[in-house]
Every structure is written in C-alpha cells, then in structure tokens.
Amino acid sequence: MSKLAACLLFIIVSLVLPAAAPAGENITRLSDGKQVAMRQVVAQAEKADLVLVGEVHDNKAHHALQLEVLRAMKKEGIPIAIGIEAMQSDSQGNLDAFIAGKMSEERFKQVFAQNWSYDWGLYRDIFVFAKENGIPMIALNLPKELVVKVSRRGYAALTDEEKKSLPQGTMCDLNNPHTEFLKKSFGEVFKHVTNGRVFEYFCEAQTLRNSGMATNIRAYLKKAPKTKVVAFTGIWHAVKNAIPEQLSRNGSPLASLVIMPEINEFKGGEASPEVIDYLVSFTSP
C-alpha cells in the first residue's frame, strides 16, 4: 500500500524571501502551464479571500513551502490569519493562549499531541512564526471523536447532541463533486482493503471535515473581512472541489487560491486548473 493510501486510511480511524522561487523549487501556473516566481503567486493571493496550501502531513518540504508562502505574504504587508487542520476547533482557546505568549511551548506541545498524531517538529516553525509575528491562528478541524465515529459508522451514527457540537452550517451531503473525485482517485485502492460501505463512510467523514473547516473559515472572515486566511490542510481537503467547493455550497463563494506541492497523483499532466491553481515541484540539488 502506498504512503498516500496509508494516510487516507488513517483518516478513517529568515523573514525575507528572494523575489524568485528558491533553488530546487519550480512553480507552475496551471491555467497556462507557465513557470512563475513566488512574487507572482503572492500577487494573486492578495486578491483572494482564502489561500490553501496543501500538504502530505509528514513531508518536511511541504511544510517549508507553507512557511515560504506565509513569509512572502507577510513581507508584502498582507493581513493574514493561519487556518490549520492540525488543530481541532475545541482547542481554539489553547491555540490563542500560545500565540499570545500565555502558554509555554512545552505545554502547547502536549496540547498539539492531543490534537494531531504527527510530530510537532514538522509544524513548529509555522506556529513559532505566527507567535513571533502576532498572526492569529484558526483551529480548523472538527473534534477527533466525531470524525472517527463517522469514518467507522457513518454520519447517521452521530446523535442529535453530537451534531449540535459541529460548527453551525456544517453539512454531510455526499452529492458533491469531491465525492466523485474521491471515487475516481481512490475507489480502486479501497476495494483492496475494505468494502464499499466503509468507503462511503470515508467519503462522509471527508465531506464532514471539508464542510466543518469551510464553516470555520467563513466564520473567521465574517469577523475579520479584510484578512486573508492562509489554510494548511491535507492535499485532498485543499483541492478546489473540497473546502472551496463547500464554501460555495454553504453561502456565497469566497475567492480562493490553491497552491499544491506535487505528488505522484499530480504528475504527468494529471493536475488541472479545475483542481489546482499553482503546482510546486521540488528538484534534487
């Protein structure tokens, strides 16, 4: 089983940047296939409400790209807030305390470990950058126990009380483009490891998380309409038919920009402007 498939199954259960992209990194604009510099990406980001930068959670280069985008936007004086999948919405108070300097890093590491199974060291530079620069952070993810329950037993298994704990407006309607995208991309993988019903539960869990994170983003932008939210999530939440599409289904659409590190599924012309705006590939030194 590939690393990507394993990650999907797990879901079931320097302040100044150079003008051009750094060595070893190539940025392709999907709309016309042209190579561009980070400053051109940032110019488009300034026009958006939401900038999504995808990640494979344990890939250091992907997190370095996320930090690069943050630094570039900060350098241009763009007002930003950072939305992050690695933190659950019920931990927002702890996240606020850390950013405000009211919680030590050692204590916050414990909070982070309760929220996310991946190593703190992969994300530390992003959190510290936010803290040092007074950049608000938004805990985007839904409470873990609800996501796990849906992934194992389906959305119908949630009680009315549990549904009330979701961000207001969160939906789990599988009649959406992302469900078809998941079927096309991963249906064959799941046939070898589970049955169709559990794959449906996986789609429900993904849709629930996309909808919940979209709702949290919209709620923040309603409070701070002049701010750009820069959201760091897994690849399959960041594509246009995931969180951005959920935003359009739950209220008026927001202008979004999707920046994606290259993975095997996006190589050889498989990435399209319907799914991604900018594709970033990393070359060996």
TrEMBL record:
UniProt cross-references to Gene3D superfamilies, sorted A to Z: 3.40.50.11550
Domain Haem-binding uptake Tiki superfamily ChaN, first and last residues per copy: 41-247
Pfam families for this protein: Cofac_haem_bdg
Keyword presence, Signal: yes
Origin superkingdom: Bacteria
Signal peptide bounds: 1-19
Alphabetical UniProt keywords: Signal
Chaperone as UniProt keyword: no
Name of the protein in its database record: Haem-binding uptake Tiki superfamily ChaN domain-containing protein
Lineage: Bacteria, Pseudomonadati, Thermodesulfobacteriota, Desulfuromonadia, Geobacterales
